[in-house]
Automatic annotation (TrEMBL):
One of its GO terms (molecular function) is lytic endotransglycosylase activity. PANTHER family: ENDOLYTIC MUREIN TRANSGLYCOSYLASE. This is Endolytic murein transglycosylase. Its EC number is 4.2.2.29. It catalyses: a peptidoglycan chain = a peptidoglycan chain with N-acetyl-1,6-anhydromuramyl-[peptide] at the reducing end + a peptidoglycan chain with N-acetylglucosamine at the non-reducing end. Keywords: Cell membrane, Cell wall biogenesis/degradation, Lyase, Membrane, Transmembrane, Transmembrane helix. The gene is mltG. It is found in: Cell membrane.
Length: 372
């Protein structure tokens, strides 16, 4: 009987242990699931937080915020300054991000940054000393356009009309302000009485990025003039050596730009013009006739060549009063560095290839050969 009792007690203890083990396993499972769940929540929250910290604070912001980076600032100090000024969301994330990308050698200085800038744009700005931002919109101005044609591009890409653009570029006060701002570029030459548009030829053809949704019209125009100023500065010593004014250069370059085709040798055409100027022979270039007429025509007629206008180089000797278009750098360089030839004539065939001649008789042969 006693043996049976001990046997039962042993069985009860084993069953109790089994129940306890089952409870423990259940508790361990629950705790494990809770821990995994907490880790998952923390991980997702952390991921979202880090992702958010890597993005711009306000992608639509255009307001500039002045930020001063003192000399000798380390990445921790820079990150703290950027966070304090509201440029980035989290200084620690910015610090880790720069280390991850192995970025360093940031420059001290005063920066105008915005909350729309990405971390990469901010880093690039601090490395180069320049502000790198994605433009809100761009305006592309091809080579060889007149102010009238540029006005239509402005109307298409901004809130300003073509009429407003033309009124502004011809406004005497605005012209004077540009002359004061860029004295080495815009001279009294643009105010001559026979000039159609004072700033014709002074708006550089390029693609311009603007970082405000609604930049002022003056800013748009002055940006293009500033670019012309930057380009011309490269050739100041050559201009001085050739005793050539900026106005003459831009006028000459505009003729090359308008005569150019995809296959044109601008340097050789430039030599033709220089050779004609040297012997006081009229330039006789059709684009000046079209500019004089104030309209585009597929074909210049003989009667057009006789139009009485200061820009018509068939009836007037020398360069026209001013540029007839806005020339690009290739034409500017060709005007400064023409080929050395004895050519006095040239024509473009139906495929755009140019054919040059030293005499009028040779020129007539080229006309018979390539144009008839």
């Amino acid at each position: 009987m006693e043996k049976d009792t001990k046997k039962q007690e042993m069985i009860d203890k084993i069953n109790t242990r089994k129940k306890e083990a089952k409870v423990v396993r259940r508790i361990v499972t629950i705790v494990t699931l809770v821990v995994i769940l907490i880790i998952g929540i923390v991980g997702i929250t952390g991921y979202n937080y880090v992702t958010s910290a890597l993005e711009p604070i306000d992608p639509n912001s255009t307001k500039g915020i002045e930020v001063e980076i003192p000399i000798g600032s380390g990445i921790s100090t820079i990150a703290s300054i950027l966070e304090t000024n509201g440029i980035i969301k989290n200084a620690r994330i910015f610090k880790y991000y720069t280390k991850f990308k192995n970025e360093s050698e940031f420059q001290a200085g005063t920066y105008e940054l915005t909350q729309a800038m990405t971390l990469d744009e901010i880093i690039e700005s601090l490395k180069t000393g320049k502000v790198y931002r994605e433009p809100v919109f761009t305006v592309a101005v091809p080579e060889g356009l007149t102010l009238d044609q540029i006005s239509k591009i402005i109307e298409k890409n901004t809130k300003f009309t073509a009429k407003e653009f033309m009124e502004r570029v011809n406004n005497p006060e605005f012209i004077q302000s540009m002359m004061k701002t860029y004295p080495s570029l815009i001279s009294e030459d643009v105010l001559a009485g026979n000039i159609r548009y004072a700033l014709e030829g002074y708006l550089y053809p390029a693609t311009y990025g603007f970082y405000e949704a609604d930049p002022k019209l003056d800013e748009i125009i002055s940006t293009m003039i500033s670019q012309t100023n930057d380009v011309i500065k490269q050739y100041e010593s050559i201009l001085e050596e050739k005793q050539m004014t900026v106005h003459e250069l831009l006028t000459f370059a505009s003729l090359l730009e308008e005569e150019a085709t995809a296959q044109t040798d601008r340097e050789t055409i430039a030599s033709v013009f220089y050779n004609r100027l040297e012997i006081e022979m009229p330039l006789q270039t059709d684009p000046t006739v079209l500019y004089a007429l104030g309209s585009h025509k597929e074909r210049v007629l003989y009667e057009d060549l006789e139009v009485k206008n200061p820009y018509n180089t068939y009836v007037n000797q020398g360069l026209p009063p001013g540029p007839i278009a806005n020339a690009g750098q290739v034409s500017i360089e060709a005007a400064l560095s023409p080929s050395e030839t004895e050519y006095l004539y040239f024509l473009a065939d139906k495929k755009g290839m140019n054919h040059f001649a030293k005499t009028y008789d040779e020129h007539l042969l080229n006309i018979d050969k390539y144009l008839k």
